Amino acid sequence: MLLPLSSTDSSRFQFMEHIVIIGNGIAGVTAARHIRKLSDKKITIISAEAEHFFSRTALMYVYMGHMRWTDIEPYEAFFWKKNRLELKKAYVTSVHTDTKTLEFETGDTMHYDTLILATGSTTNTFGWEGLDLNGVQGLVTKQDLETLERNAPNNTECPRAVIVGGGLIGVEMAEMLCTRGIQVTMLVREPAFWSNTLPMGEAEMISRHIESHGVDLRLKTNLDKILGDGNGNARAVLTKEEGEEIPCSVVGITTGVTPNIAFLKDSKIETDKGILVNRKLATNIPDVYAIGDCAQQREPIGNRPPVEAVWYTGRMMGEALAQTICGNTFEYNPGNWFNSAKFFDIEFQTYGWVNSEERKKEYEAQFHWKCPSDLRCITIAYHKQTEVFLGINTFGIRMKHAVIDQWLNEDRSLDYVVKNLKKANFDPEFYDSYESKIQQAYTNQFEKAQL
C-alpha cells in the first residue's frame, strides 16, 4: 500500500527534497507511486495533457464507445491527495538546470531538487505539405482523440479517411474509424503491413485480415502531399507513385512516434533522438533523470532499441528510478523483450527476437506455421548452428509470459520449445488447441530438410 496522508502540517514540505516529475503517463506516475512507497519526499507531477493519469492504450475504446473517460483513469480522484502527490496542469517551456528551475508557458516558475523527465512521445512527421490543415492529426495524446471525435464523429461528416503509415497506431486508428462506418484507406510504403518488423508470412496474413474488414490497403504507396480545400481543411491526399488523388476529410499520420523533447533544446541536458541516459536513467546533469518514451540509452541494452516507446518499459523504468532516488542505487534491466497488440480480431504476442527479413541476423533461422483459417500463425526464431531458441511471435494463440521467458533464459532448443508448446499455451480450456498441428508441420519441415 501507499503511505496514508500524514497528519503533520504540509508546511514541512518546504524543508523536504522536492521531486518534480514532468509527465503523468505510465513512467512518471509509476516513479511517483514507488517514491512515495519508499519515502516521505515532496512529489509534484506536471502535465499539460490531462488532469489525471489515464490508460493511454485504452484511448481507442473511448472513441469506439466501449469505455468512458472515467473508465480509463485507474485511480480515484482522492488517490492523489491521500498519497500526497501534488498535481499541476501546466506546460513547461524551459528547464534551467543551473538554478534548478522550471519555467512555464504562463511565465511562472518552480524550483526542484530532483527532476524526472517523463514527457513521452509525439507524432513523427516528415515535413509533408499540408500537415497544418484541419483534419490532419496523429493518435498519441488525449487531445488527439478529442480532435478525432470532432473531425470524425460519424460517416456523414467524415465519409472517408486516409491513414498514412502502418504499425500499431495505424491499425488502431483504422479499427476505430471502421466502427463508425467511415471508409478507410491506408498508405503503407512496405510490400506488406508492418513487414519492416514482422516476418513476411505474418505481415501478409495481417494484410489480408485488415482488408477483410473493408480497409482499402495500399501497399508500396507513399504520401506525396496533403491537399486543402482553400479554407484550411484537408480535402484529399496525393500519392507519390501514381499521383492519385484520394478524397478524404481526415488524414491520420501514424508514421511512428518520436521523443517529446523540443522544450529542452536550449537546456544543458544532452539529447540525441531522445534524452540521453545511462543504466541508472541519469542524464549528464546531476539530479536530472529521464524515463519512458523520451529516454534514450547511451548504450543500447542487448538487441533492444535505444529508445523504447512501450508502456511496460516505462513502468519498469519508473520502478527502477524510484529505488535509486530513494537511496538504493538500481540499474534499469528490462530482461527479455516482449510486447503484445491487436490487429482487429487477431491478438499478437512477441517474446525474444523474431526479426523481419530486412532485420534478420545472419545466424537467425525461422520456423513458421499458419492455420488454414488464415487467422492464426506462429513464427519461432532459432540459431542456425546451435538451434537455441531466440524468440516467438504468435497471432491468435495466447502464450504464458513466464514460461516463454524461462525458456529464453535457459537457452532451450527449438525442438524443446515445439515439443512443449502445450506448457506455454494460455488459451482457456474450451478454446481449440493447435499444438499437434504445429508439431506435425515442424516434423514435416525438418524431415524434408534432411532428405
Oligomer: single chain
Q: Count the strands?
A: 25
Residues in helices, as a percent range: 10-25%
Most strands sheet? 5 strands, parallel
How far apart, in Å, are the first and last alpha carbons?
Answer: 61 Å
Low-confidence stretches: 1-13
Number of helices: 11
Strand order of the largest sheet: 3-2-1-7-19
Strand residue content: 25-35%
Question: Structural class, from secondary structure content?
Answer: alpha/beta
Give the mean pLDDT.
Answer: 94
| Net shape | globular
Q: What's the alpha carbon Rg, rounded to whole Å?
A: 24 Å
What does this structure look like?
This protein is α/β, with parallel strands linked by helices and 451 residues long. The protein contains 11 helices and 25 strands. The strands form 7 sheets. The protein has a 5-stranded parallel beta sheet. Strand 1 (18-22), helix 1 (26-38) and strand 2 form a beta-alpha-beta unit. Helix 1 (26-38) runs parallel beside helix 7. The N and C termini lie far apart (61 Å).
